[in-house]
Design brief:
The complex is a heterodimer of chains A (114) and B (117). Chain A is mostly beta strands and 114 residues long. Chain A is built from no helices and 12 strands. In chain A, a hairpin with a 5-residue loop joins strand 7 and strand 8. In chain B, a hairpin with a 6-residue loop joins strand 7 and strand 8. Chain B has 117 residues and is mainly beta. Classes of the chains: A mainly beta (114), B mainly beta (117).
Chain lengths: 114, 117
Amino acid sequence: AQSVTQLGSHVSVSEGALVLLRCNYSSSVPPYLFWYVQYPNQGLQLLLKYTTGATLVKGINGFEAEFKKSETSFPLTKPSAHMSDAAEYFCAVTFTGGGNKLTFGTGTQLKVEL
Amino acid sequence: DTGVSQDPRHKITKRGQNVTFRCDPISEHNRLYWYRQTLGQGPEFLTYFQNEAQLEKSRLLSDRFSAERPKGSFSTLEIQRTEQGDSAMYLCASSSLHRGYSYNEQFFGPGTRLTVL
């Protein structure tokens, strides 16, 4: 079985500050990890993904995440927050086989303040 | 690619009524997934198709729910005798092995928000 835990349902940062959103996963087989962003009343947009290879992955809008196997974590970071980053962020895990269905965390609402 | 589309975007219904949602995946995508997202939660898997075959259904998909993908293209999700607990956002996603993608990378539609009064 696989699961995802996102620590902090709400995170608030100042514009220009570092964004750090936490994600811990549990998977009995090598995972594939994703971060999605959701704006109000919209679907999910893929920010970035880790499948295999380099553990530091870069995504859209200046976000990046690092696969930390020993810590079973996949934190999402952005060096400098922008007002447009305010949204809800979901971490998700899947694995090859088993239909590749995604298991999501409960989400982190990011607020960016002036 | 025109992206995944869903119709309607919003649906308000009274308890006990039947509703049907439609999802049009990205063309050439042979996998199609349905997820449900309730307020304050992440999406939860409901079911998925590979071409026209429904390969897996979640325990969340009660007998009142039925999904079809008759020609391996668009899909419908029907809820019979709706209950207030069915109020949620219903998300559709599609994926494919074409163009170097993997089934893991799913592209989501905008969702259908269902409100049951």
